């Protein structure tokens, strides 16, 4: 099998795939349309199933220099601030799932990945090149070599997806995410720097966790919302902000004030990619959001792209030819993606529950201790961990 691979897209999934492939002896070209790499968004949760792979790539020391390992992941009632559940993390995560749980700025992870790719002699990064028309010809023109395989890591609005018959399509999920950061002083003791906190309410929830790089907190407020005429990310507007604040109008006053006073929040319509083909059986395969973008209710979007990268590299290194490798990749990843999608759908229902469903949720959570709750994540966070 030829060892030349091209990756379209230099996001988290694409850069991780490049490193995974290079470590298995493949020569990799990464093509990115942006002339300068910048990461949109702010915070990112790296659960053990993802950090394990990054650690195996030799990146753990760099990650530890910028991230925070929260002591716990907590669920809290957004109105009363009553604690509903607590899953231990920190040292517990390393012991139970054999890898850490960290939170950091997306830009920090991208910088770490870019530095590793730049230092890897088997990787070549090509910025400012847009792949249009015949992908194979465009890539050969850009890189000077014809790849044996083209990997589409170009996100939810993937152009390479158009080259695959029966591929999924983008659809609006019915939810909008507002992303913002606040200083530790502005948080006024509402947010704790040693944990990830999910505040729950009817039709909305708010996730907050510390960002060591800014000395403050990352917040993601997710509400039921309307489509935005194809606008993927937008700045604050009076109409949008009214919808956003109305969704939290019955919440704790302190949280309402925090959300109201936050500087320059941005909104993201949350879209998914419907189930469809991920590869053409011959030369093109999609990974990450390009293949199976999902809602963030399980905080696994980046993790699934990282898992895809590792799995695809493993399949390519062990198969006799590319077609066999692509079949093996799908057979490995489809059940896993479906399981994570189901968990995200369940979390969406549970987080935004109201009426009797909310009462039932709270009763069930109150009956489970931290260890029992942690056990519910073994299938997710322990994925790929060595046998204990």
TrEMBL record:
The keyword Flavoprotein applies. InterPro entries: FAD-bd, FAD-dep_Monooxygenase_BioMet, FAD/NAD-bd_sf. It holds the Pfam family FAD_binding_3. Its cofactor is FAD. Residues 3-343 form the FAD-binding domain. The keyword Oxidoreductase applies. This is NAD(P)-binding protein. SUPFAM superfamilies: FAD-linked reductases, C-terminal domain, FAD/NAD(P)-binding domain. Keywords: FAD, Flavoprotein, Monooxygenase, Oxidoreductase. GO terms for molecular function: FAD binding; monooxygenase activity. The lineage of its organism: Bacteria, Pseudomonadati, Pseudomonadota, Alphaproteobacteria, Hyphomicrobiales. It comes from the Bacteria.
